[in-house]
Amino acid sequence: ADIEQPHELLHDAALCRELLDLLTRIATGPNPMPEAKGIPVADVFLQQPLQLGYPNTLICMVGNIFPPAITISWQRDGIPVTDGVTHLTYTPTEDLGFMRFSYLAVTPHSGDIYACIVTRERDNISVVAYWVPQDPIPSDVLATAVCGAVTALGILLALLGLGLLLSARRRSMWGQWRQQGHPPRTH
After folding, report:
1. DSSP-based three-state secondary structure for 6
2. Is it the case that residue 31 has pLDDT exceeding 70?
3. 35-131, which class in CATH?
4. How far apart are CA 39 and CA 37, in angstroms?
């Protein structure tokens, strides 16, 4: 009784065909529906803390990919780099897009300029993310700066405390003189 009869199935099939034809005309007609495209967003960072002259790995993290069809390439000082490059497969994200990682083995030196170039295969639109090694502050310079700042803060707080102590003492002496009926001496 709950099973559809053949003539009902033919009616449903005809309705599905008409709906499919209508959607096809909308999608391919003179004003087709816009195709979903994500503009990739790239970010480049080091895997380990920076030490100039020591091997490390640059990571290019590319998000907002849709459809999953991009090419990732690397450059160092404007020259393409292919040695030491590793690409991972696409990973789906919660926003129904994809992300992808690319790795580049590097030995960073001061003045290097690295570029991760992400190109959408469909329309050859490229997004470029740059990374330039920043000289880290030597730890002894940082320690000296922090020590100096803490010392200055300590002196400032000591002076503030001394000022508050003197102010409180002066008020208490003023209160005692007024109770005894003597005006305070002025110099």
Report:
1. helix
2. no
3. mainly beta
4. 7
